[in-house]
Design a protein that fits this description.
Family: Belongs to the iron/ascorbate-dependent oxidoreductase family.
Distance between the termini: 38 Å
Order of helices and strands: HHHEHEHHEEHHEEEEEEHEEEEH
Strand content: 15-25%
InterPro entries: DIOX_N (IPR026992), IPNS-like_FE2OG_OXY (IPR044861), IPNS-like_sf (IPR027443), Oxoglu/Fe-dep_dioxygenase_dom (IPR005123)
CATH topology: Jelly Rolls
Largest sheet: 8 strands, mixed
Strand order of the largest sheet: 1-2-10-7-12-5-4-3
Shape: globular
Radius of gyration: 20 Å
Structural class: alpha+beta
CATH architecture: Sandwich
CATH superfamily: B-lactam Antibiotic, Isopenicillin N Synthase, Chain
Protein name: Fe2OG dioxygenase domain-containing protein
Number of strands: 14
Keywords: Iron, Metal-binding, Oxidoreductase, Vitamin C
Pfam family, one: DIOX_N
Number of domains: 1
Number of helices: 10
């Protein structure tokens, strides 16, 4: 680990110049691997205190959405959301064949002809499809070993011809399945909070969805970098599909806990990745948005698909803040009100630097 500090302190290291040079290749981390590098560039080296450490094991709650005991299902979701911020769901209605094809679609995108892929490379998140490496490339303290393509699949879907041909059909099919799952999850969470089961649905929380296809190439020096640095996510809810390689970890009681892949299961994260972390604001800290990360690996490539329920980047003056039903003299508001648009813009500009985004809105 000491080597990281030594390399980072080399005299004359111009980080911005190296970031620009990497960005201008439009080939991402995969381009470095394809070039046969054996040592990672300095921009990817994380400080020793933030790079991978030993993790522990912990049983992540599994919720059976096919259970006929709704009260028990709601109880498990509430306990997991309050105590851990993560849980897994099975019998969720998405066929395994669809999940497998979605993972393959992400792999096809990142491994397709380079010139085709380059045409989608951008940092303009208003585009229908955005492919790049590290959305926060120029603002994060260290670059992550990951490439991503993303697109908003709700509340309105881009014209099919604007989606990547190699994964267009499965992206549309999978997104439709996840929208249905999200609607169910929001009803269950509403009930868990003692609200009408349509409460969040009436606020359109289950309408906006962004799908992100992550690709983590095998890393020659995984102990010096991260696949995704420690962060808290900023959306209403996330649904994560990960392949068999794993690497996701959550911070629980000051220890990193592995979230190993479970065949047929999806990982649900309260308060999530690329938009506005309103669920915790709305629940006034009753639900938890927990810090998590992805470690780099030598196996690779690791593929995952994250679907984030939130808002689009379209201007919106809709105001959101702590739910009146959850505020009292004994439990006063802990976050100021904001608009969807303001929160979305702040989320895009905020780097994955380990500083909780929610502090910006804390009263």
């Amino acid at each position: 680990m000491a080597a990281a500090a030594t390399v980072s302190d080399v005299s004359g290291y111009d980080r911005l110049t190296e970031l620009k040079a990497f960005d201008q290749t439009k080939t991402g981390v995969k381009g470095l691997v394809d070039a046969g590098i054996r040592q990672i560039p300095r921009i990817f080296i994380h400080p020793p205190e933030t790079s991978p450490k030993t993790s522990t094991t912990f049983e992540i709650p599994v919720v059976d959405l096919g259970s006929t005991d709704r009260a028990s299902t709601v109880e498990v979701i509430l306990a997991a959301s309050e105590n851990l911020g993560f849980f897994q769901v099975v019998n969720h209605g998405i066929p395994v064949s669809v999940m497998d094809e979605m993972l393959q679609g992400v792999r096809r995108f990142h491994e397709q002809d380079l010139e085709v892929k380059k045409r989608l490379y951008s940092r303009d998140f208003s585009r229908s499809v955005v492919y790049n490496s590290n959305f926060d490339l120029y603002s994060s303290p260290a670059t992550n070993w990951r490439d991503t393509f993303s697109s908003f699949m709700g509340p309105s879907t881009p014209p099919p011809e604007e989606l990547p041909e190699v994964c267009r059909d499965i992206q549309i099919e999978y997104s439709n399945h996840v929208l249905k799952l999200g609607s169910l999850l929001f009803r269950l969470i509403s009930e868990a909070l003692g609200l009408n089961d349509n409460y969040f649905g009436d606020l359109d929380f289950d309408k906006g969805i962004l799908i992100a296809g992550h690709y983590y190439p095998a890393c020659p020096q995984p102990d010096l970098t991260m696949g995704t640095a420690k962060h808290t996510d900023n959306g209403f809810l996330a649904v994560l599909l990960q392949d068999e390689i794993g690497g996701l970890q959550i911070l629980h009681q000051n220890q990193w806990v592995d979230v190993p892949p479970t065949p047929g299961a999806l990982v649900i994260n309260i308060g999530d990745l690329l938009q506005a972390r309103f669920l915790q604001i709305l629940s006034n800290d009753k639900l938890r948005s927990v810090e998590h990360r992805v470690v780099a690996n030598v196996k690779g490539p690791r593929v995952s698909v994250a679907c984030f329920f939130g808002t689009s980047l379209a201007p919106s003056e809709k105001v959101v803040g702590p739910l009146p039903e959850l505020v009292s003299d004994e439990n006063p508001p802990r976050y100021r009100e904001t608009t969807y648009y303001e929160y979305g813009q702040h989320s895009i500009s905020k780097a994955l630097d380990g500083v909780p985004q929610l502090l910006h809105w804390r009263i």
